[in-house]
Every structure is written in C-alpha cells, then in structure tokens.
Design goal:
With about 450 residues, the protein is an alpha/beta fold. It folds into 2 domains: about 1-210, Flavodoxin domain (Rossmann fold), CATH 3.40.50; about 220-445, Flavodoxin domain (Rossmann fold, 3-Layer(aba) Sandwich). The protein contains 13 helices and 17 strands. It has helices at about 10-25, 50-55, 65-85, 100-110, 155-160, 185-200, 220, 250-265, 290-295, 305-325, 340-350, 395-400, 425-440, and strands at about 1-5, 30-35, 85-90, 115-120, 125, 130-140, 165-175, 210, 230, 240-245, 270-275, 325-330, 355-360, 365, 370-380, 405-415, 445. The structure holds flavin mononucleotide. Flavin mononucleotide binds near residues 332, 333 and 378.
C-alpha cells in the first residue's frame, strides 16, 4: 500500500481501507505492508546525490559518502517494493497531477536494471512481470478517460506499465467535493476488485505494498506560443527563473543560460531572480502542515505554530512569484514527468485567491494576467505534440494556464542522449524567443 494522501480520512485512503478489509476477509493471511508517504519514511529525496551514488556503483564516477548512502537507501526502497506481489496506490489529485512525495517515489524506484531494463536496441522492458496494481485516484472534479487535464491516473498507468506491471486496475473517486455520496460507487468497485483479485489467481504469500496512510520534433514545433490572439506584452522588467535540474551543465540549464544572456544583451537592466529548486531554498514541503495553516487563516480550523509557519512560508513564495513579469522554467524530464521539487512548487503556488480564483459557478479564473512563460523542457527522448507519454510540457502548460499565464512559449531540447548536437537548434530558438520578448509591444496574433 502506497498512501500518498496525508489525510487518513481522505477519499483515496477510505476507499483503499475498504478494499483491504474485503481482501483480508476474502483471503485471510495476505501480508500487507503500508508506506505512508507523508509520514517519516526512509525514502531518500531523489536528486544529484542518488544519481552520483548510482553512477559510482556503476564505476562511472567517484561519489561522496553521503551520495553512496543516498543510493544505498534508494536500493533498500526498491528491494522492498519488488518483494510485493501486488500494489495499491492511494493517490489524491493535486493540481491535476500526483503529490510530489509520490513523484519522488517514482523517481527513486525507476532505475534501469532494477525495475526495467533497456535492451540492445534501446527498447525498454519492464522487469516486474506477473504483478498487478490497483490505482485508487481521488479527485474533486470528474475526468473522462480522454481528458487532457488528467495527469494523475494516466501517469500512474504509464510508470507502472514501464516497470512491467501491466495488470492494472483503477478506481476513480470523483466529484469528492460532493462529500460522502461520491464514494458509494467506488467503495463497491474496490470491493469487487478485491474479490476479483482473490478469485482470478490467489495472491501468493506476500501480498500488497499499499498506500501507507499508504516530440516536439526539434525545430518545427519547438517554439509554440499560445494559440490565442493576444496583445504582445511590453518587454518584461523582471524575470523569475525556476531551475528544476540539479545539473548546472544540464541541457535545460544551458539553453536557459543562453536565453538569459540574449535577453540581458537585448534589454540591459531586466531584473533576473533565480530559484534553484535543488539547492536549499525556503520553499516549504507541501502537505498537511501548509493545508492546516491555510485553513486556520480562513478561520475554518485551528492550527499549530508549525502549521501557521508553513503557510506563511508558502505565502512568501507566492508573493515573490507574483512579483515577476515573466517566468522561465528549466525542467528536465524525469520518468516522463517533472521532478518532484517542481511539482512541490506547483502545489505551493496554486491556491485559490492567490494565483487563481473560483467564481460563483465554480469556474476557475487565473489571476496572473498579462504575464508570460518560457518552458524549457529537456528530455532524452523525442515526444511529438500528441504524445501520450509526455507528462512534462503539457503539464507545465496546464498549470501555468490555470494561473492565467496564457502567453506561453516552449523550447524542447530533445534526444539529449546524443550530446551537444541536440542543443544547437534549441539554443537558436531560445535566442529568438528572447528577442521576441524584447520587441516593442504591439498587437500580436500568435498563429
Ligand atoms: C531520473 C531520470 C529519469 C529520466 N526519465 C526520462 C524519461 O522518462 N524520458 C526521457 O526522454 N528522458 C528521461 N531522462 C533523461 C533526461 O530527461 C535528460 O537527461 C535531460 O537532458 C535532463 O535534463 P537536464 O539535462 O536539463 O538535466 C531521465 C533522466 C533521469 C536522471
């Protein structure tokens, strides 16, 4: 059981509890292990430490003691994960995707040679064959199977599929804003899945890990502005750069450096603020503390001093974010999505009344109007615009769009496994965007 909601009584947890109860009754003795991701658990933060520790093991580099320890901790997590016959993931939807803690776990688990492998032709093959997963996805809205806004269930399907877990079951708990009525049918479905699991082929000895309180082909599409007609904003006076790759020399950072250099030359005096998400930065971990602190401010509940502090820290981040005229996000693709640190920032920033608001009919309206964003997305593969495997660029477009940042530009750095040749065209495109941004304001219709 992998529980990614911090709310013991949340919908994903309650439906999962019911599933387990039926499973236990139908097949007593099944061993259930719970990982509650929001409690203290020995799961390392995925970042350069883990990567360096892994590379040192492979003899490709030296590593510091802390880096060896981080990789060894990741290996322990992978080992325990692989011991299970089946998985239950209880996941809340947060800002159209999964919580950062769950994304971090995906990055800790997804390693070639451990949960999948690449054959000689570079094709990936999952290693967790014969296992199954139940994905319990709770969300306040309702998302049909072909929704362009659901980055939760399709993403979990994708990453379990890559690991070879193809026997996938899903229970969506939808419209949870309606309260308990929304869980009636999912409860029934979860019970039916439990019974199916026990019928089809009895689970072997070990049971579940369950929720613990469980291309753009280079040039042609690489620069995409919002399809809407809009008035070109005046050149930005301040730009916030959000760097989500821990590699200073990584592709997203290098292309972003080039963009900034051209911007600075074309428009000297533009104020540039940098957030390097993998360095120590005063961004709180989004979780129950921040939520409780926010609710206390709204008078809906009491909060502990630490919870007030967490929300006040989130407010500082939001304030600084809103001060910028424009954003540049330098993002590596990790396991088809964005790094957990960037997802955490999305959750810290996305609050009604701050970056968007809901009108009386419940419609959401972005509040950051007149701003723009450049999304620099680096990935080893190549993902066409209609790819079902790209949860990086479409996701960033979605969350900036929700905040009202509709003047969006993107540069995809693709096929980075080829080395420096992959950045030649993106460098040119980034320079072109910088020059476009500095052009005098005028009516502009993005085609
Ligand atoms: C943990 C991890 C997971 C990755 N997953 C993917 C992936 O799913 N698809 C892909 O095309 N590239 C993947 N890559 C490759 C990176 O996207 C690629 O190296 C990219 O250049 C990283 O951006 P950066 O150079 O700015 O750090 C992964 C790399 C790492 C370290």
């Amino acid at each position: 059981m992998i529980r990614a909601s911090p709310r013991p009584n949340g919908f994903s947890n309650r439906v999962t509890d019911h599933f387990l109860q039926v499973l236990n009754t139908t097949q007593p003795g099944v061993r259930i292990t719970e990982w509650r991701l929001h409690d203290k658990l020995a799961i390392p933060e995925f970042g350069q430490d883990v990567i360096n520790g892994k590379m040192a093991e492979g003899g490709q580099a030296d590593a510091l003691p802390g880096e060896h320890a981080a990789w060894s901790q990741a290996l322990d997590v992978i080992r325990e994960f692989k011991e299970a016959d089946a998985y239950v993931v209880a996941a809340p939807m947060w800002n159209f995707g999964i919580p950062a803690k769950l994304k971090n776990l995906v990055d800790v688990l997804s390693h070639s040679g451990h949960t999948f492998e690449n054959d000689e032709s570079g094709e990936s093959r999952g290693l967790l064959l014969g296992k199954r997963a139940l994905l319990v996805c709770a969300r306040a809205g309702a998302y049909p199977a072909d929704s362009q806004s659901d980055f939760q269930l399709p993403y979990l399907r994708k990453v379990f599929g890559v690991m070879g877990v193809e026997d996938q079951w899903a229970v969506a708990v939808e419209s949870t804003w309606k309260g308990q009525s929304s869980e009636v049918e999912p409860m029934r479905e979860a019970a039916a899945v439990a019974q199916e699991w026990c019928l089809a082929s009895p689970l072997r000895q070990r049971g579940l890990i369950s929720p613990q309180h469980v291309s753009l082909p280079g040039s042609a599409l690489a620069i995409q502005a919002s399809p809407r007609a809009c008035t070109r904003a005046p050149p930005p006076r301040s730009v916030l750069v959000i760097r989500a790759s821990p590699r200073p020399d990584g592709f997203s950072n290098r292309v972003t450096d080039h963009f900034l250099q051209v911007l600075n030359t074309t428009q000297p005096g533009v104020r540039i603020t940098e957030w390097r998400l993998h360095d120590k930065l005063a961004i709180p971990e989004f979780g129950q503390d921040v939520i409780n602190g926010k609710m206390a401010e709204g008078g809906q509940a009491d909060a502990l001093p630490g919870e007030h502090a967490a929300w006040s820290q989130a407010l500082d981040v939001i304030r600084e974010f809103k001060e910028a005229d424009a954003y540049v996000v330098a993002a590596p693709m990790w396991n088809f999505g964005i790094p957990a640190k960037l997802k955490n920032l999305v959750d810290v920033l996305s609050h009604s009344g701050h970056t968007f608001e809901n009108d009386e009919s419940g419609e959401s309206r972005g509040l950051l109007l007149g701003k723009r964003a450049l999304l620099v997305c680096a990935r080893a593969g190549a993902y066409p615009a209609d790819s079902q495997s790209d949860f990086q660029l479409p996701y960033l477009r979605k969350v900036f769009g929700v905040m009202g940042v509709e003047d969006q530009w993107a540069v995809a750095v693709e096929s980075t496994w080829k080395g420096p040749s992959s950045e030649v065209e993106p460098m040119r495109e980034a320079a072109a965007v910088a020059q476009e941004w500095c052009a005098p304001s005028s009516a502009l219709s993005h085609a």
